[in-house]
Write a structure and sequence with these properties.
By secondary structure, the protein is of the alpha/beta class. The protein has helices at residues 60-69, 82-90, 103-111; strands at 15-22, 25-26, 35-41, 47-54, 74-76, 94-96. 23% of the residues lie in helices and 25% in strands. The radius of gyration is 13 Å and the shape is globular. Residues 1-11 have low confidence and may be disordered.
Length: 124
Amino acid sequence: MMRKKTSALDSTSSEKILVVLYEDDVHPRFDLAMGLYIAEFDQKKTLVHEKTLVLPHPSAEDLCRLALAEKITILICGGIEEEYFDYLTWKDVQVIDSVIGDYQWALQRWMASLLQSGDIQRPA
């Protein structure tokens, strides 16, 4: 489900991104994701720190808690229920949803300021 875009964060601050994973792709469902990629970028979009995590079980509520505890500023995912989308945006997390493709492709598009909700990676 496509939703309105949220406002961009202040470009002078660092960004902390969470991508929900299914193998090497953006997971198609936020609530079923167990793999996570977390990266922190400085204001020039230079990678400062990255890590991957595996959750013991899928849980949208646990993912929301983790996003807030990690101070995530941007979430990249496939489908996300409106309840979680609204909660995270209320907590000042920019949600870029309905993204389909390799998570590295999505990160590269974000670093180039091109990633938008609904983006689909096209075969080469």
